Structure formats: C-alpha cells, structure tokens
Amino acid sequence: MQYSKKKQEGFFEREKMLRSVYPKTEAIINEALTAYTRSEVAKDDIIDALAAAVTAKIGFNRFLTIPETPTIDSKDLRMEMVYFLVSGPGAKLNYTL
User: Fold this and answer.
1) What is the pLDDT of residue 49?
2) Nearby residues of 54 by Cβ (< 8 Å), 6 or more positions away
3) The Cα angle at residue 89 between residues 83 and 95, in degrees rounded to 5
C-alpha cells in the first residue's frame, strides 16, 4: 500500500483492493458509514473489519500462522498472526462469497 490507511488516498486504495476480491465491498462500506458516526467507528476501522472478514471467508481451511507453533499467553490466547497464501504470482482465487 502506498498511502496510510488514515488518509483519504489510503482508504480508497484499500477499498479498491477489497473490491477486486469482494463485489459487495462498496455497499457494505456505505452501509457502515451511514449507520455509525465517525466517533463510533472510524473509516479505517470499517476497512480493517471488512478485510478481516473477507480474508476469513476466502482463506477458510487454508490458514497458516506466524509463528508455526504459537505460544499461549496468560489468558490462554494464541499469540499468532494468521494468513493464507494464494499459490504463485498472479494466481487466481477459487472461492464463492
């Protein structure tokens, strides 16, 4: 990403990326922007939440973690970052949203 997610250019950059994999992106963002004030939910938080939801849907059953074997914290939470890989550059995702 070229711009900070807090800047208007960064918001649009991220929205465009999400639209490329999830056609309902614009409708969901507009609904959230209408339903909540910016003091309740920041614009970049809407993008973050939608990105997480789309990633969860597309990556289901194909997740990897960093580290491979995460440690557990004092509240029994796994300390990890979760992601999925699309095989090879330019690979197409096979999914239904």
Assistant:
1) 95
2) 18, 21, 22, 25, 97
3) 55
Contact (Cβ atoms closer than 8 angstroms) between residue 3 and residue 13? yes
Q: Taken in order 71, 75, 76, 77, is the CA torsion positive or negative?
A: negative
pLDDT for position 94? 58
Q: What is the pLDDT of residue 97?
A: 55
Tokens found for residue 80:
């990890």
Burial 59-88 (b: 16+ CB within 10 A, else e): beeeeeeeeeeeeeeeeeeeebeeeeeeee
Which residues does the chain have with pLDDT short of 70? Answer: 86-97
